[in-house]
Write a structure and sequence with these properties.
heterodimer, A: about 110 residues, about 0% helix, B: about 110 residues, mainly beta, globular
Protein backbone atom coordinates (compact mmCIF):
# COMPACT_ATOMS: atom_id res chain seq x y z
CA UNK A 1 0.00 0.00 0.00
CA UNK A 2 1.93 3.01 -1.28
CA UNK A 3 -0.63 5.59 -0.12
CA UNK A 4 -0.44 8.86 -2.04
CA UNK A 5 2.43 9.15 -4.49
CA UNK A 6 3.56 12.24 -6.36
CA UNK A 7 5.95 12.63 -9.26
CA UNK A 8 8.29 14.27 -9.85
CA UNK A 9 9.81 15.20 -6.49
CA UNK A 10 11.61 18.20 -7.96
CA UNK A 11 11.12 20.19 -11.17
CA UNK A 12 12.61 23.34 -12.65
CA UNK A 13 10.70 25.10 -15.44
CA UNK A 14 11.22 28.20 -17.48
CA UNK A 15 8.50 30.84 -17.63
CA UNK A 16 5.92 29.88 -20.22
CA UNK A 17 6.61 26.17 -20.19
CA UNK A 18 3.92 23.65 -19.37
CA UNK A 19 4.02 20.54 -17.26
CA UNK A 20 1.86 18.05 -15.39
CA UNK A 21 2.32 17.10 -11.77
CA UNK A 22 1.22 13.54 -11.21
CA UNK A 23 -0.67 12.22 -8.22
CA UNK A 24 -1.90 8.71 -7.59
CA UNK A 25 -3.46 6.93 -4.63
CA UNK A 26 -4.07 3.25 -4.03
CA UNK A 27 -6.50 3.54 -1.12
CA UNK A 28 -9.63 3.73 -3.29
CA UNK A 29 -10.40 7.18 -1.89
CA UNK A 30 -13.16 9.11 -3.60
CA UNK A 31 -11.84 12.54 -2.74
CA UNK A 32 -8.60 14.06 -3.98
CA UNK A 33 -7.19 17.58 -3.65
CA UNK A 34 -4.22 19.69 -4.65
CA UNK A 35 -2.62 22.24 -2.33
CA UNK A 36 0.35 24.55 -2.62
CA UNK A 37 2.56 25.68 0.22
CA UNK A 38 4.63 28.83 0.05
CA UNK A 39 7.29 29.88 2.59
CA UNK A 40 5.75 31.04 5.87
CA UNK A 41 2.29 30.09 4.66
CA UNK A 42 -0.12 27.33 5.32
CA UNK A 43 -1.33 25.05 2.57
CA UNK A 44 -3.79 26.62 0.13
CA UNK A 45 -6.31 24.60 -1.82
CA UNK A 46 -5.98 24.76 -5.62
CA UNK A 47 -8.52 22.25 -6.95
CA UNK A 48 -10.36 19.25 -5.62
CA UNK A 49 -12.40 16.30 -6.85
CA UNK A 50 -15.16 14.30 -5.20
CA UNK A 51 -15.00 11.49 -7.73
CA UNK A 52 -14.07 10.51 -11.26
CA UNK A 53 -15.27 13.13 -13.71
CA UNK A 54 -16.02 15.74 -11.01
CA UNK A 55 -13.69 18.60 -10.16
CA UNK A 56 -14.07 21.99 -8.55
CA UNK A 57 -11.99 25.06 -7.77
CA UNK A 58 -10.41 25.82 -4.45
CA UNK A 59 -8.92 28.97 -3.00
CA UNK A 60 -6.17 29.60 -5.61
CA UNK A 61 -7.18 27.90 -8.91
CA UNK A 62 -5.86 30.42 -11.45
CA UNK A 63 -3.14 29.07 -13.71
CA UNK A 64 -3.93 25.42 -12.99
CA UNK A 65 -6.09 22.78 -14.64
CA UNK A 66 -7.16 19.39 -13.34
CA UNK A 67 -9.09 16.38 -14.54
CA UNK A 68 -10.12 13.14 -12.87
CA UNK A 69 -10.62 10.30 -15.31
CA UNK A 70 -10.00 7.53 -12.78
CA UNK A 71 -10.42 7.14 -9.04
CA UNK A 72 -6.69 6.62 -8.61
CA UNK A 73 -5.20 9.59 -10.49
CA UNK A 74 -5.56 13.34 -10.19
CA UNK A 75 -2.99 15.23 -12.30
CA UNK A 76 -2.40 18.96 -11.97
CA UNK A 77 -1.50 20.85 -15.15
CA UNK A 78 0.35 24.13 -15.42
CA UNK A 79 -0.25 25.45 -18.94
CA UNK A 80 1.94 28.58 -18.88
CA UNK A 81 4.26 28.43 -15.90
CA UNK A 82 4.98 31.70 -14.10
CA UNK A 83 7.51 32.51 -11.33
CA UNK A 84 4.55 33.04 -8.97
CA UNK A 85 3.87 29.31 -9.26
CA UNK A 86 7.16 28.46 -7.60
CA UNK A 87 6.00 26.46 -4.61
CA UNK A 88 5.74 23.03 -3.02
CA UNK A 89 2.69 21.16 -4.25
CA UNK A 90 0.89 18.54 -2.19
CA UNK A 91 -1.75 16.10 -3.32
CA UNK A 92 -4.16 14.58 -0.81
CA UNK A 93 -6.89 11.95 -0.79
CA UNK A 94 -9.60 10.89 1.62
CA UNK A 95 -12.83 9.02 2.10
CA UNK A 96 -15.93 11.21 2.49
CA UNK A 97 -15.75 12.78 5.94
CA UNK A 98 -12.37 11.23 6.65
CA UNK A 99 -9.03 12.87 7.26
CA UNK A 100 -6.91 13.71 4.27
CA UNK A 101 -3.77 11.72 3.51
CA UNK A 102 -1.02 13.75 1.86
CA UNK A 103 1.66 12.80 -0.60
CA UNK A 104 5.33 13.76 -0.09
CA UNK A 105 5.11 16.84 -2.31
CA UNK A 106 6.62 18.19 -5.52
CA UNK A 107 9.00 21.12 -5.25
CA UNK A 108 8.58 23.31 -8.34
CA UNK A 109 10.78 26.23 -9.33
CA UNK A 110 9.81 28.48 -12.23
CA UNK A 111 12.62 30.67 -13.52
CA UNK B 1 -14.53 34.95 5.05
CA UNK B 2 -13.15 32.00 6.92
CA UNK B 3 -9.71 32.26 8.41
CA UNK B 4 -7.55 30.18 10.66
CA UNK B 5 -4.78 31.95 12.52
CA UNK B 6 -1.79 30.53 14.30
CA UNK B 7 -0.19 33.58 15.87
CA UNK B 8 2.92 31.91 17.23
CA UNK B 9 5.34 30.99 14.46
CA UNK B 10 7.53 29.00 16.83
CA UNK B 11 7.56 27.30 20.23
CA UNK B 12 10.43 25.75 22.17
CA UNK B 13 9.92 23.35 25.06
CA UNK B 14 12.00 20.88 27.01
CA UNK B 15 11.51 17.16 26.72
CA UNK B 16 8.92 15.90 29.18
CA UNK B 17 7.14 19.24 29.53
CA UNK B 18 3.82 20.24 28.00
CA UNK B 19 3.60 21.84 24.56
CA UNK B 20 0.57 24.03 23.89
CA UNK B 21 -0.11 25.15 20.34
CA UNK B 22 -2.87 27.65 19.73
CA UNK B 23 -5.21 28.44 16.87
CA UNK B 24 -7.95 31.05 16.41
CA UNK B 25 -10.67 30.99 13.78
CA UNK B 26 -13.40 33.21 12.35
CA UNK B 27 -16.82 32.43 10.92
CA UNK B 28 -16.64 28.65 10.99
CA UNK B 29 -19.40 26.96 9.00
CA UNK B 30 -18.93 23.40 10.17
CA UNK B 31 -17.00 23.74 13.44
CA UNK B 32 -14.73 20.86 12.49
CA UNK B 33 -11.03 21.31 13.02
CA UNK B 34 -7.96 19.21 12.44
CA UNK B 35 -4.32 19.30 13.43
CA UNK B 36 -1.62 18.16 11.04
CA UNK B 37 2.05 17.60 11.74
CA UNK B 38 4.70 18.13 9.09
CA UNK B 39 8.33 17.11 8.99
CA UNK B 40 10.72 18.72 6.47
CA UNK B 41 10.50 17.27 2.94
CA UNK B 42 7.40 15.26 3.82
CA UNK B 43 3.69 15.79 3.38
CA UNK B 44 1.52 16.73 6.37
CA UNK B 45 0.18 13.84 8.44
CA UNK B 46 -3.11 13.89 10.27
CA UNK B 47 -2.80 14.10 14.04
CA UNK B 48 -6.16 14.68 15.68
CA UNK B 49 -9.50 16.35 15.00
CA UNK B 50 -12.42 17.84 16.91
CA UNK B 51 -15.98 18.70 16.04
CA UNK B 52 -18.41 21.12 17.64
CA UNK B 53 -20.24 18.40 19.56
CA UNK B 54 -17.19 18.04 21.80
CA UNK B 55 -14.96 20.48 23.61
CA UNK B 56 -12.11 18.01 24.03
CA UNK B 57 -10.65 15.07 22.15
CA UNK B 58 -7.75 12.92 23.31
CA UNK B 59 -5.47 10.53 21.50
CA UNK B 60 -2.58 9.31 23.59
CA UNK B 61 -0.25 12.20 24.34
CA UNK B 62 -2.26 14.57 22.17
CA UNK B 63 -5.35 16.46 23.31
CA UNK B 64 -7.24 19.10 21.39
CA UNK B 65 -9.51 21.59 23.16
CA UNK B 66 -12.20 23.62 21.42
CA UNK B 67 -13.65 26.82 22.91
CA UNK B 68 -16.45 27.84 20.56
CA UNK B 69 -17.37 31.02 22.39
CA UNK B 70 -13.79 32.27 22.09
CA UNK B 71 -13.34 30.74 18.61
CA UNK B 72 -10.16 29.18 19.82
CA UNK B 73 -8.63 25.73 19.81
CA UNK B 74 -5.44 24.40 21.26
CA UNK B 75 -3.33 21.28 20.93
CA UNK B 76 -1.64 19.93 24.04
CA UNK B 77 1.20 17.46 23.81
CA UNK B 78 2.12 15.80 27.09
CA UNK B 79 4.85 14.77 27.63
CA UNK B 80 6.70 16.37 24.74
CA UNK B 81 9.37 14.31 23.03
CA UNK B 82 12.20 15.31 20.68
CA UNK B 83 10.46 13.41 17.88
CA UNK B 84 7.55 15.83 18.20
CA UNK B 85 9.74 18.58 16.73
CA UNK B 86 7.90 19.54 13.53
CA UNK B 87 5.61 22.15 12.06
CA UNK B 88 2.03 21.89 13.32
CA UNK B 89 -0.83 23.17 11.22
CA UNK B 90 -4.31 23.89 12.43
CA UNK B 91 -6.93 23.36 9.71
CA UNK B 92 -10.64 23.95 9.36
CA UNK B 93 -13.10 22.07 7.19
CA UNK B 94 -14.73 24.51 4.81
CA UNK B 95 -17.06 22.35 2.76
CA UNK B 96 -19.57 19.72 3.66
CA UNK B 97 -18.07 17.21 1.27
CA UNK B 98 -14.97 17.17 3.44
CA UNK B 99 -12.67 17.83 0.52
CA UNK B 100 -11.52 21.32 1.36
CA UNK B 101 -9.44 22.50 4.28
CA UNK B 102 -8.19 25.94 5.12
CA UNK B 103 -4.86 25.92 6.96
CA UNK B 104 -3.15 28.23 9.38
CA UNK B 105 0.43 29.28 8.70
CA UNK B 106 1.81 26.73 11.11
CA UNK B 107 3.79 26.71 14.35
CA UNK B 108 7.27 25.21 14.45
CA UNK B 109 7.71 23.19 17.62
CA UNK B 110 11.19 22.41 18.87
CA UNK B 111 11.56 19.94 21.72
CA UNK B 112 14.99 19.82 23.28
CA UNK B 113 16.35 16.89 25.27
Amino acid sequence: NAGVTQTPKFQVLKTGQSMTLQCAQDMNHEYMSWYRQDPGMGLRLIHYSVGAGITDQGEVPNGYNVSRSTTEDFPLRLLLAAPSQTSVYFCASSYPGGEQFFGPGTRLTVL
Amino acid sequence: DQQVKQNSPSLSVQEGRISILNCDYTNSMFDYFLWYKKYPAEGPTFLISISSIKDKNEDGRFTVFLNKSAKHLSLHIVPSQPGDSAVYFCAELINQAGTALIFGKGTTLSVSS
